[in-house]
Structure formats: C-alpha cells, structure tokens
Amino acid sequence: MIESNVTNGKVIGKDFLFESVAEYQCNDGFYLQGATTRTCQASGMWSGVLPMCQRVSCPEPGGVCSKVVCPKPGDVGNGYVEGTDYTYKAEIIYHCNEGHVLSGARKRKCGANRQWSPSAPSCFKIACPTLSILDHGYTVGMLYKNESVIVFICDKGYQLEGKAMLTCKAKKEWSDIAPTCVKVKCSKPEVVHHGIIKGLDYSFGANLEYECKEGYVLKGAKIRTCTSEALWSKTSPKCVIVPHVMQLCARACARACGRIIQG
Asked: How many domains does the chain have?
C-alpha cells in the first residue's frame, strides 16, 4: 500500500501493483525533498523513503544578486578570440590567422555554471590548399594537415565522379583532383509498340509520359520517374488494341479472305 500521507502534497498513480510507479508532487509554495518517484517492488514494499514537501522560503530582503561571469577564455594558438563580454549567455567567436584552419566549434557560450561550452577549438596550419565547396554533396574531415584525409559524399540522386577520398601529401598538395557530384541518369527507356514516349531528360527526378496511338489503349503506368538508384519507377506500360477495333479488323479480314477464295 502506498504511503499517501504526504503533507502539503499529493501522490499521482493508481493500481499500485508490482513495478507500478508512484509520483509525488507538492502544492504551490512547497518543494519536494527526496525522490519524485517510487516503485512497487516484489517484496510488497516501495523503493526509497517517503519524500517530504517543504515550504519555500525566501532569503532576507536587501541582498544583491550579481550576474554570472565566466573566466576569461585562454588564447588560441595561431588565432584570436572575438568578444569581451564574459557574462551569462554571452558568446565569443574564434578566428584563425591566415594560413590556418579552425578545428572545433567557432562559437562558445557562457553557461549558468560559469563555464564556457563547448570546448575550445584549435587552429592548425594549412598544409594543402583549401578545397572548393562540393555542390550537391558534403565532405567529412576538414583538417588540412599532412596526411589528413577528406571523404566526399554526394546527396541523394547524385553520384560521385572522381576519387571519394583525398589525402593531403607531404608536398602540400592533394593526392588527386577534387571530385564532383553529378545527377544520376537512368538508361534510355525501352520502345513501346504503338505508343509514344514524351520526355528526353533521363536524369534523377525527370518524368516520362506514355501515350498510345489511335485505336490503342494504355495498360500500365502513364508516368514513370527516374529514381536515385538510376532505375525507372514502375514497369514499362503497353499499348493494347481497343476491343471493338480488334473486332472491326477481324471482320474486314474475313471479308477480304472471302473475296480471295471466291476469286
């Protein structure tokens, strides 16, 4: 059975069976001293001890509250720190000198615990030239030190042309030229007999529209799209002859065949 006698508070929960959880809350003007929850154990006893609701008390009036201040951030080698406000929620920005690149967070903020977060970044000397931004993709690893490696990854629907990984060599040059991300292309669609395919763009996201010639009807998808896997969505449709046209053709053929036999 749950101890429900919480002075100036209440217990939230029902069906206090094995593994049930009871939650304790205090009335306005009171705060909880102890665990906020207790669990019903196999022994039939509740875990922990019964918490108490203590009355909120204010400090003596007339005190002065000073704003939280973080310590002065240390210098960053081969760079400098922008910002002179070190109070709570203030931000500082890190910059690197020319010929160096930043590794880590560019901005840090002063927290309520009087500490800067996240950790301080570093400035590394650039050994290899800066690479241009990869359109329709992104890179992993942005340090340009000797033997550092950068991996290139393309967005969905694009494929890499060139080496997926470059290494900064001792001669201050990259192991190869930077790759590019180009749109995935689907193969030329198969011919649809007695039909027409509208669309000459076979790249990712492009659509093909199918139509049939007079006397035929489309069986299958009217629209197909080039997917990121370089495959056309759905299967190729077919143009089948309209039933009443087939009957007319059969009658015409029968009449023609009859005239040939009679002749």
From this structure: 4
